[in-house]
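cron nightly-structures :: item 1 of 1
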Amino acid sequence: MQMRKFLISAACAISFLPGIASAAVAEADALPSLKWSFDGIFGSYDRPQLRRGSQVFLEVCSGCHSLEMVYYRNLVDIGFTTDQAKAMASDYEIEDGPDDEGEMYMRPAKLSDRFVKPFANTNAARFANGGAFPPDLSVITKARKGGTDYIYGLMTGYLDDAPADFDLSEGTYYNKYYPGHQIFMAQPLYEEAVDYEDGTEPTLEQHAKDITAFLAWAANPEMEERKRLGIKVILYLIILTAMFYALKRRIWSNISLEEFVHDPYVVEYEQEMQRHKRPN
């Protein structure tokens, strides 16, 4: 089990890092353009997809990456029951204390805890990953140009062999969507990397879609609420505008233009403006 975790950690070690192995920077291929369920003003997260994505993260990515802005209680928001979220949290230990004797101790994680980090500190993370520090993935879809399409492309853009005319530096891997095509991170996802609990076919593309959607939710969990509020505001403004327009029509319906022009108050106002008008 420890060896398996080590291999997973090594595979994910430098995920999404912008390091390039050579001075010559090749232009990355155009990113794939996918239609996501949460796109557009009426878009929303696909809860089953988010649960699959959380499974991919916990079984693969969490071996080296943190998700510091997400709490275990947030798993309830994507469709897990409270008991399921508690069970998932309890699989991890977190340092707590001090106790009555002044000592720190380890305890199972609770719903009130953030996702447990894979390493105790930065130095431990760098030591385990060949000097590289795996970034936190909480807002990775916002931090990278291309957002969700970039993450999906990166997960599916690995080639077993670089093109014959491409000089691939030692210790790097060829990825057609990565700037420069050379990335230090080994391919983290493969066919059947995760055995989905809901029976979904575990293809590489499915894994990539699910983890991308999960990371998009982690970076923007309040998106659906903001969209609902925005729609309510727009509807309110439309109704208010219609009411004012109807009121205007009603007020002016019995007043002709001629009557308005010859109204004593209007005439007096025009005369006053003429008196104060500057000469040319």
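cron nightly-structures :: done
Residues 97 and 103 are 7 Å apart (CA to CA).
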